[in-house]
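Residues pack. One example:


***
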Amino acid sequence: MAPRPGSKSGDGDTASAMPLRYGDDPLLWAAWLYYEEGLTQGEIAEKMGLSRASVNAYLADARTRGIVNIEIAPDKFRSLSIAQALRDHFGLQDCLVIPTEGGDRSLIARLGAAGAQTLQRFVKSGDTLAVTWGRTVLALAEALDRPGLQDVRVVQATGGTTAKIPWTPEACASRLAEALNARSIPISAPATVSSPEIRAMLMQEPVLAEQLAILAEADRIVMGISSLRPESTIHSSGFLDGGVQHAHYQDAVGSIIGRFINARGESVIGPMHERTIGIDLDALRRIPQRIAVAGGVDKLPAILAALRGGYVNVLVTDVVTGRGILTAEGYKDTPRRSPPPVQAPLTARSHVKKLINAPQDAVDEALKGALLAHEHLIAALPGSPRAIRALEGPRAGKVGIVIGGGAGHEPGFWGYVGRGLADAAAIGNLFASPPPGPILAATQAVDGGAGVLYIYGNFSGDVMNFDMAAELAMAEGIAVRAVVTTDDIASSPVESRAARRGVAGNVFIFKIAGAAADRMLPLEACDALVRRANARTYTMGLALEPGSLPETRRPSFELGPNDIEIGVGVHGEPGVVRQPLAPADDCADLLLDRILAEMAPHEGDRVAVLVNSLGGTPAMELYIILRRVRQRLKSRGIEVHSSLVGPYYTSLDMAGVSLTLLHLDDELAGLLEAPCRSAALVVP
C-alpha cells in the first residue's frame, strides 16, 4: 500500500499539502491528476512531493478500489469536477464541494463541518481571523477542533446583532476562539445603529477604534452568505426591519458581512450603509484569504454575486449549488485528455559547480577582490594580508574592536570592519580559525591606548588562537578582553549555553560593540555591554540543501529531496533533527517558536530581527520569512525595532535561512541605532 499524506514511505517520500477538493484521499488526487489533467507520473510525483514509484502505487490502488476503471467513476468525481471548475472559473485559491444529500445531518451542519475542515487546513499560529455570523458559521465553529495554535486572535467582522437568534456575531466569534484556543475580540457596538450621526460618534470611541484596528489586520475571514428571503440571516438579525428592503434594496440579491450586493457583485447603497458598524466591502477584498461557507439553491444568486464581486477566494458549498453557479455562468465541461507518455525522471545532481580557480587559492583571491571592491573602507595590514583594518583609526583613547574567524561566511568578517563597527578582523582558512599572527597584528594596529576587545564565535580553534594572541598582546602591555559569542540555540540546551556556537547573531553583537567603543566607553563597559548583548541574542537555522566545499565540490551532508535539516551549523554541519519540507510560514514558525520559548518576551518588549541567507537562498524567500516573523511578533504584542534581511553571515552556498532575535533594552536599542559604515552594514 502506498504511504498516506504526511507519512513517510520506505524511500523517504512525504506527500505535499493536499488541496481541499480531494479531501484526505491521495489516491483520488493522483488519479485525477493522471486521468483528468493528463500529467505524467513524474509531474505528479513533483506536485505531490513523492517518488514516481509511490505515484505508480497510488494509481494501482485507485484501480483496485474502483475509483478508476478505464473510465473514472462519475460518482466519485462529481464533487471534484465541480470544485475544479469553480476554482478555475472564478480564480479561487481553493474550493471544497460536498454532496447535497447525505445522511441524517442537515446541509447546514454538513457545510459547517466542511468549513471546519477547510479552516483547520489554513489557520496558523499568529493569525488574526475575522468572523461573521449566521447558522452555517456557528455550525462551523461547533465542528472545529484545532488545538496547539499560538497567538491567534478571533475578531468579529461586525458589531453585535439582536440576541433573539443563537448565531449572533458574539456567539460565533467566542465559540470559534474557544475551538482555536484563541483570544476573542468583540466589536463593542451594535452592528446597526439608528442614525449615521450615532455611528460617527461611536467610531470616535477609543475602545471601538482599537477593536476596528485589529479587524483591519485580519489575515483571513470566515463568512456566511445570506439570501434576502424573509427567513434569511440578514432578516432575522434585524437589518431589514420596517420595509427597508422594498424601499431601498430592490436591486440587492444577497448580503455578505452585513452589506448588500446586486447580481453583478456591486455594492448596493441604502440607508443601512452609514448605519452599519464593521468591515466594509472594500476592506473585505483586502483580506488575503476570504473563506465563504454557504450552500442551498435559495442562496445561489447571493453566492454567485459574491463570487462575481471578488469577495470570496475560498469557497465551501454543495454539489447542486455549485452546478447551478456554473450553469448560470454558461460553463461547459471540456473533454478529458489522454495521458501523455511516461517520461524518465531527471538525474539527481551529485556534483556542484563553482566559479573558482584553484581551490587552495579561493580564500585569498576572494579577499583580494573584497579589498578592491571596498578600498575606500578597508585595507590589509602590510605583511599580514589576512588582517583587515578600517581605514579610519586607530583613535587615541578608544577601545579597539577585533573580530575574526574562518572564511566562508562572507561578508563576515571583513564586511563588519568600519566606523562604528569593528576596527579590524582576522580571517582564517575556509571554516578554520585564523592563526595567532594575524590576530596579534590586528590588535597592534587598532590599539589606541584604551585596550582591545576580541569578539569571536565559540569554536575550539578560535578560542585557542585568540587566547594565544591575547597572551602575546598583553605581554606587550596591551589590555585585552574577549567575548565568545553563543547565540545558536540549537547547538546546546539552555542550561549549557556557554557551549553554544556563535553564528549570525554576531552581526548584532559586532554592531553593539562598535557603537559602544565609538562612544569612547572604557574597556570594562564595552565588555559588559557586549556580554549583555550576547546573552540576549538568539539564533536558529535550517537548511533546504547542504553547502559544498571548493575542494570537494560535493554536498557536506546528504539531504533528501523532500527533507529539511533543522539546527544546521554555519560550517556545513548537519542539524539536530530532520523533517519533511514544509511551507515557508511553517518553517518560520518552527524557528520563531523555539526562539520565543527561550527568550520569553513580554507584551510591549522590543526586538531586532535578522533573517539571514545561509548563502544559497534568494531574497524573495527571505522576505517571505520576514513577513511571517513580523506577523507573529505583532500578534504577540512584541515591537520590532529594526529588521535586517539578506546574506549577512553565510555558509558558502548552503540553501537555507537563519533567524536571529536580539531582545533589546533601552541601552542596547540606542547602540543599535548609532551610525556605522562598513561593506556589509550601514546605519546612517
About this structure: The domain at 537-670 is CATH 3.30.1180.20 (Hypothetical Protein Tm841; Chain: A;domain 3). The mean pLDDT is 89.
